[in-house]
Amino acid sequence: MFIDLHCHILPGIDDGAQNLKQAIAMVEMAIASGTKVMVATPHMHPGIYNNNPATIEAAYNTLKHAITQRELDIELRSAAEVHLCPEVMLWAQKGLLPFIGEYKHKSLLLLELPHGSVPQGTTSLVRWLHSNNIQVMIAHPERNHGIWKNPYQLSQLLKLGCLFQVTAGSFLGHFRQQAQNIAESLLKADSIHIVASDAHDLEKRPPDLREAFEQISLLSSEQHAKRLLWDNPAQMLGKH
Ligand SMILES: [Fe+2]
Per the record's keyword annotation, is Hydrolase included, yes or no (predicted)? Predict the structure, then answer.
């Protein structure tokens, strides 16, 4: 059984599920692969995906209603994948940040860095968030091209107290060799907090966690895989 804390399953509000039919097909695939809880995390990225708590709630209600009508056996929650941008501070102050859950009594934020780099200013934003009772979890650091060039940045982010979410497909070679190497070395160093699907569709980035669970079990242990795909996310969601 798995908990998926990062997926783009809400219909029509980002580059994930494009409509309700596709969203339902993704939910069915997740259920078939053993997922019990999904937290929908649409992009909040000013100028690209202009989501806010209201747009997310509306799409969530549509999908939740369809899941209930079809009696699908899954718990759906919603949060967001928030892009690193100056608006983050404003949103935090106005209470407009959707949080994944909690971590050590802090609100847990899934923060996305640009794909190509770890920009200057990341450190100060993370410090500001941490001092405002918001815990940062970095979305898929293993896929960041700046980190590929300078993996030392991973230890800097860990030293700042960031948590790491690694994408399931990175263990399966879906995101180039560099991403796989970093995912494996983070796993070996026990520096990953959760593994999630980051599902966007049914084919290229599907909501299937089982294969990654098996691969992590082989690379490390089944207990470790369970910690990343159930125990840690359950704790973040307040499920015991
Ligand atoms: Fe994502």
Answer: yes
